[in-house]
Amino acid sequence: MPAKENLRPGGRSARVQASVHNAVRLLLKTMDRADVTIPLIAAEAGVTPSTIYRRWGELQELLADVAVERLRPDMLPIDTGSARGDLEVWTEQYCEEMSSGIGRDMMRDVLAAQDNANACKCDAFTREQIALIAERAHARGEAFPDIDAVMDGVVAPIIYRILFGDQPSIERVRDLVTNVLTATPTRPPQPVSAPISA
Amino acid sequence: MPAKENLRPGGRSARVQASVHNAVRLLLKTMDRADVTIPLIAAEAGVTPSTIYRRWGELQELLADVAVERLRPDMLPIDTGSARGDLEVWTEQYCEEMSSGIGRDMMRDVLAAQDNANACKCDAFTREQIALIAERAHARGEAFPDIDAVMDGVVAPIIYRILFGDQPSIERVRDLVTNVLTATPTRPPQPVSAPISA
DNA sequence: CGCTAAAAGCAAATAATTTGCGTTAATGGA
DNA sequence: TCCATTAACGCAAATTATTTGCTTTTAGCG
């Protein structure tokens, strides 16, 4: 029961959604998340609580909805000139973002929701970022591992550690990147959508 | 605020805890988890709701508490005679258990709780199981990777996929095991606590 | 511009949570 | 073994959150 694009996109409905999302973001900054309630959010957003109950069902779903928006990447991976550099920089930034209190909370919110569509979205966001790095690598003529290899070898260990109590260290993260770039079979450079010289 | 060992372990308190845990397990079997409420659990367990509120705080914590008990391994990893066999069999069983609806729900419950002590416990359970396999391997004189390498290379990818929407396939799981046993540096056999022939 | 129905508002009814206080019983020391 | 202490429980009243029936607003569309 997510408040997604399958509802009226225009006018008031959209305004309410934006207002509620803003209220959640504001309250999460201001106070402890355990004290954030739907009536409070409703008051802050200037809507009645029943609107939120009917649209989102429970606080958990609303929080997941807000969290996934904040987890959406807002920029392209930095271009360092090499695949290794790109992946290292991106991974370190990703890890830092996710390890932070806010990142952890957002991830928790996304995973705690009954509906796992938001979790899938997060996975898709990450894959897109890595795909961009891979495309750049291929355009340069560099080899690059499969997306799945990067997900398994770099992203999954980082997320697992964050979720299950360990803070992954910078050194560990660098090792993960090194391993996936060297110890796993890399895909030879190949055309992305059109051959490089057609 | 977990209902842990830091409370009176004896008599009534323990009885209440057991009764509440049983009630939760029963209700989760019987009905949809969205309909399970604290007053309902209290009625089923024969205690007053306020007892549960005071001990666990919220439903989420109670569910996490119950889930972590169910995730505790109840048997030693099967001994197949070789490290590879042990790890393969254990991994496949682990993956199957965690991918099932119940496993997913339990993991969600553990991760959704404010208190991440339960998540740490789950991680510790898994490490212990792998450590047992490693010890057996070393006792046989076989090389075996570091626990961390297995966590990063096998466990993390499986859990990541389950949490973020993909069902890891048997083939993929086998590949993970093969990779960690071949492509990562393995630790030479070494005495566990006492030299093999002292 | 008007129709239709989805989404929002409102308020009453229901259910969950918190809280103050008296009671029970686990623990530890005499 | 018995008593003192106090953590944990039970109960009930007060508070707060959630659900629900109905009305009003308004987006989407011919």
What does this entry show, briefly?
Two copies of one chain form a homodimer. Chain A contains nine helices and no strands.
Textual characterization of the structure:
2 copies of one chain form a homodimer. Chain A has helices at 11-30, 38-45, 49-56, 59-71, 83-99, 101-112, 117-140, 147-163, 170-182. With 198 residues, chain A is mostly helical. In chain A, helix 2 (38-45) crosses helix 3 (49-56) and helix 4 (59-71) runs parallel beside helix 7. Chain A has 2 domains: 11-57, Homeodomain-like (Arc Repressor Mutant, subunit A); 72-182, Tetracycline Repressor, domain 2 (Orthogonal Bundle). The longest helix of chain A has 24 residues, at 117-140. Chains A and B meet through helix 6, helix 7 and helix 8 of A and helix 6, helix 7 and helix 8 of B. Chain B binds a DNA duplex (30 and 30 nucleotides) through helix 1 and helix 3.
Key structural traits:
DNA-binding; elongated; 0% strand; mainly alpha; Tetracycline Repressor, domain 2; homodimer; 67% helix; 9 helices; Arc Repressor Mutant, subunit A; 198 residues
